[in-house]
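Exercise: predict the structure of this protein bound to glutamine.
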Amino acid sequence: MRVAVVGVQGDVEEHVLATKMAMKKLNIDGEVVATRKAGVISKSDALIIPGGESTTISRLITSDGMDREIIKLAESGKPVMGTCAGLILLSKHGDEQVEKTKTKLLGLMDIWVKRNVFGRQRESFQVKLKVKYVGEFEAVFIRAPAIVKVDKNVEILATFEDFIVAAKQDNILALAFHPELTQDTRMHEYFLSLSKV
Ligand code: GLN
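Solution:
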């Protein structure tokens, strides 16, 4: 199995390591590759879009056609996971910040997002969440977005306060937090389990 991580900006290496650890735990043979260029994603079985700055990641993936590759991979039913900025990019409906910055979204999930929703005084924090299919999970939030509304084809996996912070639409998974920043690989294991390879 080959898992690609969008490697243009953000916490790329952490996702590579967490995915490798999860593969080891599940006894999955394969490789994890971070990629900055078009050509790798189309030859992969699963994809992760990490956290970082959604405006920057969007600009870099659209400039050389990686965005089209991601859309194709997702539409073919292969697992895609977006965390934090990755969640923003997966969504179909952005907020006024997305609009103002003219950020091009991939539009793969029928969700409405809000960037930097938890406010300045709580730029980063950690909470125990109940995540469907995974269980209790220590979630790290960093200048996190959240989902404020979903269509009925979207399954809500976790909420925090009034917000949806984890959701799934078929083979696509969106998390507002950073599972790659803890030693707990269960979120990555769940993501890998969505693969039919
Ligand atoms: N605040 C960032 C954005 O809106 C996301 C933060 C993150 O990915 N850690 O793009």
